[in-house]
Amino acid sequence: MEQTVVILKPDCVVRWLIWNVIQRYESLGLRLIASSMENLTEDLLKEHYAHLADKPFFPKIVSYMTSAPVMVQLWEWENAVAAVRKANWATNPAEATPWTVRWDYALTIDNNIVHASENLEDARAEKERFFSWISVVQYT
Question: Which pTM value belongs to this model?
Fold first, then answer.
């Protein structure tokens, strides 16, 4: 079983799309094993987006990601990383495949509804970052 982290971003939360996105992942057979509503801090975002911290658009990311709460989720299933990434599709909704999360719900590349772990290594690091203090429920 693989685990992957999903962050339902501020635009997902304020537009009341949380359950739409959850339903999409559940319809693929993924299991939600941990979830937490969070207000992300600039320090946490600097760690999470370290690969972007020196980019000129980074302050815009911080502003967006701290503009409202997010829901951080941990999903589990076979090939969970690939399944979630395929369900979300392209970061830019204009490039997304029809009937994917971003095609259906994202408004712009800046407001693209979700973050998902890119690979297993990132998923493990993100799980530690966001769920080290939360009980993760295992069930069959």
Answer: 0.93
Q: How much of the chain is in helix, strand and coil states, percent to nearest 5?
A: 45, 20, 35
Per-residue pLDDT of the chain (140 residues; tens, 9 = 90+): 999 999 999 999 999 999 999 999 999 999 999 999 999 999 999 999 999 999 999 999 999 999 999 999 999 999 999 999 999 999 999 999 999 999 999 999 999 999 999 999 999 999 999 998 777 777 77
DSSP category for residue 97:
P
The residues annotated as belonging to the active site are: 115
* φ, ψ of residue 38 in degrees (nearest 5): -135, 150
Cβ contact 20:53 at 8 Å = no
CB-side neighbour CA atoms (13 Å) of 91: 6
**CATH architecture type of domain 2-39+71-131:** 2-Layer Sandwich (3.30)
The DSSP call for residue 93 is G
Cα dihedral value 89, 75, 12, 52, nearest 10: -70
